[in-house]
Amino acid sequence: MIERAREKRAWEDTLPPLSDTSQFEKRRRMMNAMERKEWAFREQEIEKLQEIRLEVLKELLKKRDENQNEVNMARLNAQWSKLQEAKEAKLAQIQRKHVSAIRKLMGKGKNIEGKLERRNIIKDYCDYASQVYGPLSRLGRFPDNNSEDFVVKNHYLNTYEGLVELESCLPDFVTQPRIKPPKPKVTTTKDGFLKRAARVDRELAEVHK
């Protein structure tokens, strides 16, 4: 801009003076040429600005596409995880049915001759190694399944706000215990003489030393 201002000032110095009427047409042609040059420069600057804006717009569109792709990928991952969990649940159900069917077949195999032994409940509960106390996983029993459902989840125990609320419900003597200092043991009588028990304690202490 400084260079252009210098060039314009130098160009203005080359213009014919206004007092010279003979060169008025020359002055007008020079001014028209300079005006066309100015307009061409402004159009070039506008084109540069438009190109810059176009590049910025392309970059914004690119970022928007990338963000949209990330959102789509996260959605697909969530859907895939949900389908995978459903698949695993279905496989577990099929496995349980398979184990149950195998157990039934084994029971029928034991009862081929029609001699089915009845269950002795008293014997099962007397024997701590029986299926009542320690069921085998290979028979389809999993005692630890869904154990997290029995975990106590309490707002008052798991959060700081809940603990503060519980503490506010406690009485003052719990949070602010009052300790009374013990009263000093009186070893003298009202008249100022040493009591007999105190005198005996002092003599015993001296003997101990």
UniProtKB/TrEMBL annotation:
<keyword id="KW-0206">Cytoskeleton</keyword>
<dbReference type="Pfam" id="PF14738">
    <property type="entry name" value="CFAP91"/>
</dbReference>
<feature type="region of interest" description="Disordered">
    <location>
        <begin position="1"/>
        <end position="24"/>
    </location>
</feature>
<feature type="compositionally biased region" description="Basic and acidic residues">
    <location>
        <begin position="1"/>
        <end position="12"/>
    </location>
</feature>
<dbReference type="GO" id="GO:0005930">
    <property type="term" value="C:axoneme"/>
</dbReference>
<comment type="similarity">
    <text>Belongs to the CFAP91 family.</text>
</comment>
<protein>
    <recommendedName>
        <fullName>Cilia- and flagella-associated protein 91</fullName>
    </recommendedName>
</protein>
<keyword id="KW-0966">Cell projection</keyword>
<dbReference type="InterPro" id="IPR032840">
    <property type="entry name" value="CFAP91_dom"/>
</dbReference>
<dbReference type="InterPro" id="IPR026720">
    <property type="entry name" value="CFAP91"/>
</dbReference>
<feature type="domain" description="CFAP91">
    <location>
        <begin position="1"/>
        <end position="104"/>
    </location>
</feature>
<keyword id="KW-0963">Cytoplasm</keyword>
